[in-house]
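Researcher: Hi, I'm a grad student and pretty new to this. My advisor asked me to get structures for two proteins we've been looking at. I'm not sure of the right format, so I'll just paste the first sequence and hope you can take it from there.
Model: That works fine. Here's the first sequence with its structure tokens right after it:
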Amino acid sequence: MTFHLGYGTNGFANHRLDDALDIIAGLGCTSVALTLDHHHLDPFADDLPARVAHVAAKLDKLGLRCVVETGARFLLDPLRKHHPTLVSEAQEVRVDFLIRAARIAAELNADCVSFWSGIRPADVPVQEAWRRMRSGVAAVLEGAEPLGVTLGLEPEPGMAVQHLTQALRLREELGAPSLLGITLDVGHCVAVEPDDAATCVRRAGALLVNVQLDDMRPGVHEHLEFGEGELDLKGTLAALVAVGYVGVAAVELPRHSHAAPDVARRAMEALTEAMPEEAAGPRHPWLADAQRAVRRDPDVVGRLFPAVGRRIGRGLARPDDPQGLVHGSVDDAARAELLGALATVLDATTLSARLLALYRHGDDAEKRGVLRGLALVGDRAVPAGLEIVRDALRTNDVRLVAAALGPFAADHLDDHGWRHGVLKCLFTGVPLAAVAGLDRRVDDELLRMVADYAAERTAAGRDVPADAARLLGRGE
């Protein structure tokens, strides 16, 4: 249970939208990145409500999750590509368009509205462009908030916000609003970022609300088919799995519409071949319906959360993990995805309260689901998440302990608590493979504690666990 592979309709510019959606779904995609344009759901059409209703029904029939993209080239100005932008003098035109897009996204039950900053005009100082960008995003957030629609800011080569660090900085300057996340084009990472795409994925982490997939070469902003550039596709997909991303990951090839069906087929074949083993497997239709229901009405999660085991099953996620301590069970993963859906529609305070209630009143399986779902909630509920993790580490249930030391704990648990959590794994027989971020967080103090533990066992005539020996560098 992981992210949803899809394709962008801007790569089907020569197709009717219905035909494009049929082809995309027919390739096995479970999502689509829908670019609003004059030929694909024109946001300025006189009959827009009817068109939106039609597309919503089509997406539901095909089982396609979606994001709304706003990068149409000449939608707002027939003479100037992508004009006006959020850093233009006529910024209000772009703001109006993005708010229109948010209304459409709400009707489509889309994950987010994706957008970028625009190119800074040559006669506009950098500081003024940044001020315009900040005020424009604030205005769009104000319009999107009553709708509960998430926005995904995309760093774009050559634009005012072209690096991930700039997008993260802007978010912080705006007060880290819960409805503002990150759209990451992995090809852009190859083209202009100092780090590779996998590192950028890990840095964005829980703030990722939309991912665009394509290949590129360093220094060149040209969308290429997989294998034609220098993207580490396998490593990038593995990073998405590792951070617990469960949103849309759609191929972005806007200049390949002349051969769209063949290009899309090749892209999906490449993605299927590169997909990590833990991301494989068909998607359960009940879970897809449950996620849509939660995004429409967050209150239903209280009814759906206990039902997951009955509807999805309780089998192990991986046959090579016989106790489910490393990878959990299929119902763990499904509950985590429900929390991921919940996090897209609730503010931080309400989300924290809901997480605590689900954990406190749930059985052991439901508690594990909350713990594994914290990776998908990330920075949005840190105090509540830490309370839940610390409670689980106080128990003697090895499956709760294992689930507690996932990516959320690796990123947020204090050094003292994390070290003792690792030591508890050694005490209780939880494999250290269950501990996320171990290589990154291991330090001299942890090694000292493990060495003392190993010495005590040796003095008592007991075997030293293999994980402890390996951690100390004494194992095979």
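Researcher: Oh nice, that was easy. Here's the second one.
Model: And its structure:
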Amino acid sequence: MVAVLAFCGVVVALMQTLVVPLLPHIPELTGSTPTAASWLVTVTLLTGAVCTPLLGRIGDMYGKRRVLLASLGVLVAGSVLCAISSHIAVLIAGRALQGAALAVVPLGISIMRDELPPARVLSSVALMSSTLGVGAAVGLPVAALVVEHADWHTMFWVSAGLGLLDILLVLWQVPESPLRSRGRFDVLGAVGLSAVLVALLLAVTQGADWGWASGRTLGLLAAAVVLGLLWGAYELRHSSPMVDMRVSARPAVLLANLAALLIGFSFYANSLVTAQMVQEPKATGYGLGASIVVSGLCLLPGGVSMVALSPLSARISAARGPKVTLAVAAVVMAVGYVVRFFTSHQLWMIIAGATVVSAGTAIAYSALPALVIRAVPAAETGAANGLNTLMRSVGQAVCSAVVAAVLANLTFQVGGRTAPTLHAYLVVFLVAAGAAVLALAVTLLMPGRRSGPGTAVPGPRGGDARRPAGVGEGRA
């Protein structure tokens, strides 16, 4: 079961980055504009952010396996749409459906909590959570190879096939959890949360193109704030809220979500700038003139390290608690960016620095669900992990906007074109390291509780199960 759910996570994460190497060619291939092409990434971010907490809540109420299968079905439908068309509107619609499948990861984590023996929960959740980074690291070089050597529709047919394989494997190996949360689905709360997220993420992702001081950007940001306040007030009064604001306001949950946002920001900078930096022409003085495939392969060792280190993260969490694990991860990520700051001229050193950052990300992504699981009721695991995954996505969206602004404003003329200066990339490394340091500070503020051997914590079926010290409760 664990291997099947982890494979589902890798496939879904791979979908998020599959189109990135294709973006420069989309206007020519589809007869569209670069602005329209950028929506192939933006719409995936939007639907993923909106659907992840919603589907997590639906899974808690009506069956996690059922919703997991539906999410994979949506992924297949979106992949087929992209595979059969070259029209930009159809491609955007297909990418929107693919983005909705991001809910697979928190749903898989919830199934593991419900079904596995307590001793296996931490290691399995660590592996499932790390798939977000693994899929992203693998997706770039694979997509680049397809773009260079095959028809670009091929990668969407492959993704559709992988989605179908996921569905068959889930039907074969993954049981339906009998654990359900009570109450009716909060439709108005779901609509309100969706409106807040769309307004916020549209402003963040499109602000650079529209202008940060433009009426559209400021209007959307203001709308996000006002709608957020109204939505929060409504949720507090609702008997069965979309998001339990009282649980989410607990220091353990609130700080875990803030840490997820900062870790998502720090991680995404590594993915965004590595490929672009090594592809810059040698005339810039720092670029290596590498191909799309080579630049994508620079992130592959990081993806391998994420798989290898997820068991280590689980062992640290079991022995010392997920709070300590997350603190270690933040330090590793900051160190990785320090390495990148001083070693930006040789390919092997760039790969080494990027891999260190990915290693820290693997440890962090594996620890975050454990922090959430120990702080929320078992019946709310899907919604709570969906919200935590959402915060990582918000962090990535903010990072994308910050990186784009830095690289667009610190430029120089070389070879008849405008290129970012080396200083621009170094600024990005410093900002990303700063985000990791802030994540460390947030982690240290998290409440920690000591527990002796055999502490009773929520078990797989919502009852009590005996877990070793550090599992579920952790030690500060």
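Researcher: Is there anything I should tell my advisor about the second?
Model: You could mention this: The chain has 18 helices and four strands.
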